[in-house]
Amino acid sequence: MIESVPRCCAGGRADQVRAAPAEPASGRGRIESGQASVARRWSAPIGGPFTMGSSDARFPGDGEGPIRRVSVGEFVIACHAVSNLQFGDFVRASGYTTDAERYGWSFVFAGFVSEDARRAIGSRVAETPWWLPVPHAYWAQPEGPPSTILGRLDHPAVHISWNDARAYCLWSRARLPTEAEWEMAARGGLEQAIYPWGNDLTPEGEHRCNVWQGDFPDHNTADDGHVGTAPVDAFKPNGHGLYNMAGNVWEWCEDYFSPAYHRATSTLDPMQSEPTANRSLRGGSYLCHDSYCNRYRVAARSSNTPDSSSGNIGFRVIRCDDDRRKTP
Question: What is the pTM of this model?
Answer without folding.
Answer: 0.90
